[in-house]
Amino acid sequence: MNYKDILRNEEVKAFLKKGNANLNVMGFTDHSEKHCAVVAKRAGMILSKFGYSEHEIELAEIAGALHDIGNAINRNNHAEYGALLAYSILEKMDMPLEDRVIIASAIGNHDESTGGAIDVISAALILADKTDVRRNRIQNKDKATYDIHDRVNYAVTNAAVKVNVQKHLISLNLQIDEEICTMYEYFEIFLGRMLMCRKAAEVLGARFKLTANGSKVL
Known about the structure:
Elements: H1 3-8, H2 10-26, H3 33-49, H4 54-66, H5 78-92, H6 97-108, H7 120-130, H8 148-155, E1 156-164, E2 169-176, H9 183-203, E3 207-212, E4 215-216
Parallel strand pairs: 2-3
Antiparallel strand pairs: 1-2, 3-4
């Protein structure tokens, strides 16, 4: 079982589709299957770079694939709802109990308002999720009605996540068009998430660095 198998599951697809539709109505950026695939792949890449086992990489990828299904229930406490839904779906897919618990725990702790990294799987999930900043996550097509969340994401013209194993460093390097949004606005939205990434990196024995337009900011 891998994350691609998970994303092909009809129940998972239905929850992600409904969750993203709900968030679209509420003015949120993309939280669809595409976002979950990005997070799954990135979570696995981070653990792979640091030499974790294939099994741990697989668990992080599956957690990434499932982490946002709780949005179909409610945006508030979506991490907790998602953890319960993921556990149920994985049980039906005959995943071993211990693995189901690890994945549910990671999903339940991925939101900055209620959670935090408590093991390597949750750390990889948090880093992968919070660094998915890109222009094409915006669902609102009317630029005249962009709120601060839309402007901040639209202003990011390039984003790259780099892992330097020798320096024990995970970096998010952004190019931001400051004519679209100021650095102050960016940090108003993302500071909590970036601090969460810093703590998650520590769980992996690494540091987290954020650069914007070539300057270190965290």
